[in-house]
Design a protein that fits this description.
IS30-like_HTH, Helix-turn-helix domain-containing protein
């Protein structure tokens, strides 16, 4: 998922738009949007932000695949 899409998800979540509508606008499945929000929400306030999502994704990608569980 591209950073631009993550920022769009963050804005629309803040406006209270449902996941299905966001998915339709981005041409993605609702499960993809839901997973993106769930995996990349900030743990302390459970808010999803595109910038923190990019950092989380980047950190996960640096872990060798044999180490991940």
């Amino acid at each position: 998922m591209m950073f631009r899409e993550r920022e769009e998800i963050a804005l629309q979540c803040a406006w209270g738009i449902c996941i299905r509508v966001i998915a339709r606008k981005l041409g993605r499945t609702p499960s993809t949007i839901s997973r993106e929000i769930r995996r990349n929400s900030a743990p302390r306030n459970s808010r999803w932000m595109g910038q923190s999502a990019a950092v989380c994704r980047s950190a996960r990608s640096r872990i060798p695949s044999g180490v991940r569980r």
